[in-house]
Design brief:
The chain has 146 residues and is of the alpha+beta class. It contains three helices and six strands, in the order ααββαββββ.
């Protein structure tokens, strides 16, 4: 699914939509083929679309099984870019709602950094890093600091 993302904001908006729709292919269309991801869930890293597709498919399948819709909100977005490279850092809040009732089930905010490159006049995510601060005493991630 080839898409043209002429602005970095187009990538972020499509990211939100793809997650809400649980559309694996739409989400993957945002990434370069040699994507390198450091995620704070499950795997240390994902390299390449096949690896990332497996993780995304598992995530979306779990949301479908639980009948959860996710809303994504980008906060404190900072974008630095040249004509061919962009660097984005922000806080991303994921809020899960029960599909039928609309009742909020859970919410968490992660820190994200994206490295994008322009390929054939379209922005693509080449590197993504999500993280959480860690509580030194418990060793657990802190989800509610933001």
């Amino acid at each position: 699914m080839a898409k043209n993302f002429s602005e970095v904001h187009d990538v972020l908006e499509t990211y939100k939509t793809a997650i809400h729709e649980k559309d694996v292919e739409k989400l993957l269309s945002l990434y370069s083929s040699e994507i390198h991801i450091y995620d704070c869930w499950g795997n240390w890293e994902s390299k390449g679309i096949p690896s990332w597709k497996a993780s995304v498919s598992e995530w979306f399948d779990g949301l479908r099984e639980e009948s959860v819709l996710l809303e994504v909100a980008f906060n404190d977005v900072v974008i630095e870019k040249t004509s061919t490279l962009a660097f984005v850092h922000c806080a991303v809040t994921f809020t899960g709602y029960q599909e039928e009732s609309g009742v909020q089930l859970r919410q968490m905010t992660n820190r994200f950094t994206y490295g994008l490159k322009k390929v054939k006049d379209s922005w693509a995510i080449a590197h993504e890093h999500s993280s959480l601060p860690i509580d030194f005493e418990t060793g657990k991630g802190l989800f509610d600091l933001k």
